[in-house]
Amino acid sequence: MNGYSIFLVMLTVYIAGLVAIGWYFNSRQKSITDFWLAGRRIGPSALGFSAAASWLTAGGILAVIGYYMLQGMGSIWAFVAPNIISLLFLAVLVKKIKNLPAITQPELLEQRYGSIVRLPIALIITVVMILFSVSDITGLSLVLQTFYGVDPLYAAAIVAIAVSLYVTLGGLYAVIWTDTIQFSFLALFAIVMAFATVGTVADGGLNTSAISVSQLFGNVSGDWWNPFSIGLPMVLIFSFALIPGWITEQDPWQKIWSAKDEKSASVGMVLGALMITVIFAVCAVIAIALNNIYPEIAGMGYPAGMASAEPALLSFVSERFASAPVVVAFSAIGLAAASMSCTDTFSTSGASCISRDIYQRYIKPDATMKEMMLVNRASVLFIILAATAGSFIIPNILDAIQIATFIASSSYFFPLMGGLYWKRATKEGAFAGMVIGFIVQVSLVALDLINTPPLAASYLESVHPILMGHGVIVGMSLSAIAFFGVSLMTKPSSKVNLAPFFEEEAKELSLSETKKINEKDPEYSAFLKNLNEKVTGERAHLQLNLHTSGNLSWQEVTENLKTMSPAWVTPTGIDSVYRLTHGDMLACVAVTRGTGERDIWLKAEPRLETLGTQKRELFTAYEELKKVFGQKNVKLDYI
């Protein structure tokens, strides 16, 4: 059996395992929240593995090793340090993010500003996630092309088919648990390669002079170890260019929302940061050894040497283990795992915008859960296919990652973070900042790519260092000026928009309308028997499934509820109706369509200390919903 056949057998077994996980979690997909947020039940360990795996692409790892070879520790600011710092920042922001009643960032921004921003931000995030996925598919294409001479089209097909199978089956549940397996494969591969490269140098393999391990590391120059060798101005520029985009990237926010409680989310982000720190440290060891094996690459300098440095590890594996096809196949599986673990995250995140923020919000607000599950899966397939096509247009791995990050930073960093912490932010300011940032950044990227010759320094960077990173500092600055300037010149946001983000506004707006309930009432007893209750962390998940005896327009239902009581509001469109009765929006009762045309769900996620009160609140909401349907002679029955 030749090496490629061995790889295909191993890959088939590996993918079968991933699909089995997706199939296992398929039965748990009862709602949009289950599909996109894993039912908000994920613990810290699984979250940490997933957070780490989703930010370690195969192409990214190869690029990091290449950067280390050519620029030493000074290169960490181009990818490594911003990754770690961003996860730690997110751990700090968990308290603010976790309790927001949203599934996607566009939905969150509509809650904050109104409908004007939801569609454009959904489109921008979709594009960004496609670009992130492009880097993963491109990375695996490079791996398989180097090892086996496989056409890039087939490499792209492997990722597309594998990821689409288990993600469309299991949603975020499958993503998180397969990420745990995939990170383990990647970590094992990286550690094995560190021992292999260092061992080769120590043994004098591949035509090198044998030296001890202490000599290998002792021969590394002091400048190589200096993380500030590129200069403090460049460190600051890289940090401002990359960290904002990665902090506001949608996929880690969705993983925070999927956590069972705030502590799990915070610990998970910190664990993720520690895990990727270990992998990046191992990459540095590999780079030091590769510089000794291939000294001519370091001599080329940056950026000329990057074309050789990026695939240097792949060349080493091919040469060192030419007579051990199982090791080569294992290496290919390890890097394939990295590609899949990122592609599944990005495809899930981008697809949630298509299904939740475009289809359900604008095309069919009254879509049933059964319809939405089909749309969810079709959206995942679309993202993967678009990324596959994009991998043939943007061949540079790190460029795809950075372009996506720069567009995100310039487009919605200020509208998103400003909306969370600044009451005076307005929808007009958010829209202006988003549109100006996006247009300017896309224009700068196009200008830079068109005018930069192959293997040469960036055109914009040659004009002025402040324009490095495709001019992202300029894009962000103009976005900030537009956001803050227009916000100050326009009317403040309404209290309904401010309530989910500022507790004092929610308390002022909320209406304590829960009626006194006789807990011995047979109707209340029947309600409690049919109420589904699951405790996860610091919150309980309450859900009441109802079936109507006849059809009724969903828009009519929402309008009648709002007429019956001013507590009923629709801050993100009519697909979800909230009963705003206190400051914690996530605990407020929400009414949505159920699985079928005549199914309706009432849901709430109260903190455990308010569980009894919220059960009575949910019963009050049920009584009001029953009156609305009763006016049309339609009955509500428990399912």
From TrEMBL:
InterPro entries on file: Na/Glc_symporter_sf, Na/solute_symporter, Na/solute_symporter_CS, Sodium:Solute_Symporter
Entry's Gene Ontology cellular component terms: plasma membrane
Keyword Chaperone: no
Example GO molecular function: symporter activity
Subcellular location: Cell membrane
Membrane-topology descriptor: Multi-pass membrane protein
Alphabetized UniProt keyword annotations: Cell membrane, Ion transport, Membrane, Sodium, Sodium transport, Symport, Transmembrane, Transmembrane helix, Transport
PROSITE patterns: NA_SOLUT_SYMP_2, NA_SOLUT_SYMP_3
Pfam family, one: SSF
Gene Ontology BP, a term: sodium ion transport
Record-linked CDD domains: SLC5sbd
Chief localisation class: membrane
Transmembrane segments: 6-25, 46-70, 76-94, 115-134, 154-176, 183-204, 224-247, 267-290, 321-340, 374-394, 400-422, 429-447, 467-488
Protein family membership: Belongs to the sodium:solute symporter (SSF) (TC 2.A.21) family.
Protein's name according to its UniProt entry: Sodium-solute symporter, putative
Organism of derivation: Methanosarcina barkeri str. Wiesmoor
